[in-house]
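Q: What residues go here?
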């Protein structure tokens, strides 16, 4: 109890203005020695099906996870597992699909506050006579059963475009993908409580931004959204808007190196502040966006490429970038600090933050660490849970998916 009280006190202290002090210290070149928040992760709960690709959680503790399996006839099928509490699970076969596009999660899943689950994936149809690549989605209403999959588009690029899915605090969902025609990117919206998707809309075009690749989506609780992608010449672009209001034209954030290897990662808070990190052949970079919508000039975090990048931002605008075996903080109203080594033995992985300033980092081996904004040490990890697939955090709870099993942690 004493630990829980001290942890809650630390986060209240942060929320009452200490983060501003952190930014001032960072600007003066002083490293704030904030403690890590010792985490207590549950034992892994093995999922009942092949649902080890993506996970979602809501504040009630309900969860959904998705993956694929090979059916008896040799085709790839989509499987989604759902749970009211993260302990008891039920698996559902949503039918053929999940074999496209190359890269990314298959399928992506989201879960609304009232328990509506959404899954989106790519599929190959018509082969071998005439192969088409499509995007499909299915919805399970609260307490109900999965509806039949619907086709959102027959224009999916089967290469490195990826399919992304996000949901706001009201249950409005958005998915985005790269089309096969002219390298344009597109999105569709599912309004809260509905099972019918809106029409596909164009996000970027090859004539405007070049052929899109490697989409990343960030959605804030209030419905704001950022879609980042690599475009022509491997340049980094970001489109800002909202799920219900649509998007402004994409903004060019950084020049590329023409090697088609950039995969930007985006994060967004409710105040409109955003962070973006990416790796190119000769450097790893990051940028931030002000609440007014202006992106900063890119900052070089490392003078070499990183095998993976991730970023997260809390409600006060404190951002972290994790790249290779290092990380860097950009505290609110400050700038990106120096690259700092991750805990010994950690590299790659994912990072997430909730609005009140709790951050969770899980490395590629599924070893998770919990800490506050600006922490100089990540503390003791959860111990390796196996190859990491996904990591999510909401107020009150963090969830890690590794080797087909879910672990949870209660966070302030």
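A:
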């Amino acid at each position: 109890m004493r630990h829980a009280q001290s942890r809650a006190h630390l986060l209240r202290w942060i929320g009452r203005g200490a983060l501003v002090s952190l930014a001032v210290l960072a600007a003066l070149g002083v490293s704030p020695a904030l403690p890590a928040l010792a985490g207590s992760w549950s034992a892994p709960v093995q999922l009942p099906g092949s649902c080890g690709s993506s996970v979602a959680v809501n504040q009630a503790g309900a969860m959904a996870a998705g993956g694929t399996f090979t059916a008896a006839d040799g085709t790839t099928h989509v499987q989604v597992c759902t749970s009211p509490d993260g302990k008891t699970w039920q698996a559902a076969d949503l039918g053929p699909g999940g074999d496209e596009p190359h890269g990314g999660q298959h399928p992506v899943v989201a879960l609304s506050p009232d328990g509506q689950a959404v899954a989106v994936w790519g599929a190959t149809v018509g082969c071998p006579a005439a192969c088409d690549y499509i995007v499909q989605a299915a919805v399970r209403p609260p307490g109900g059963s999965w509806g039949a999959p619907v086709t959102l588009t027959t224009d999916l690029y089967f290469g490195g475009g990826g399919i992304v899915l996000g949901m706001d605090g009201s249950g409005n969902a958005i998915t985005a993908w790269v089309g096969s025609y002219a390298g344009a990117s597109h999105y569709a919206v599912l309004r809260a409580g509905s099972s019918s998707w809106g029409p596909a809309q164009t996000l970027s075009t090859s004539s405007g931004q070049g052929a899109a690749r490697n989409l990343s989506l960030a959605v804030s609780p209030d419905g704001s959204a950022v879609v980042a992608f690599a475009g022509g010449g491997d340049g980094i672009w970001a489109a800002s808007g909202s799920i219900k209001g649509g998007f402004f034209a994409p903004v060019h954030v950084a020049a590329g190196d023409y090697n088609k290897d950039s995969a930007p990662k985006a994060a967004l808070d409710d105040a409109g502040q955003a962070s973006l990190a990416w790796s190119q052949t000769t450097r790893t970079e990051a940028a931030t966006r002000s609440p007014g919508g202006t992106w900063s000039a890119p900052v070089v975090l490392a003078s070499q490429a990183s095998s993976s990048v991730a970023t997260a931002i809390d409600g006060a605008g404190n951002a972290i970038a994790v790249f290779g075996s290092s990380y860097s903080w950009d505290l609110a109203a400050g700038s990106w600090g120096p690259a700092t080594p991750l805990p010994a033995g950690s590299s790659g992985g994912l990072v997430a933050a909730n609005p009140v300033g709790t951050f969770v980092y899980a490395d590629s081996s599924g070893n998770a660490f919990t800490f506050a904004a600006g922490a100089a040490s990540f503390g003791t990890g959860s111990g390796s849970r196996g190859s990491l697939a996904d990591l999510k955090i909401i107020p009150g709870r963090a969830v890690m998916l590794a080797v087909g099993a879910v672990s949870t942690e209660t966070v302030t």
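A: Context that may help when evaluating the design: The mean pLDDT is 90. The helical segments are 2-27, 206-209.
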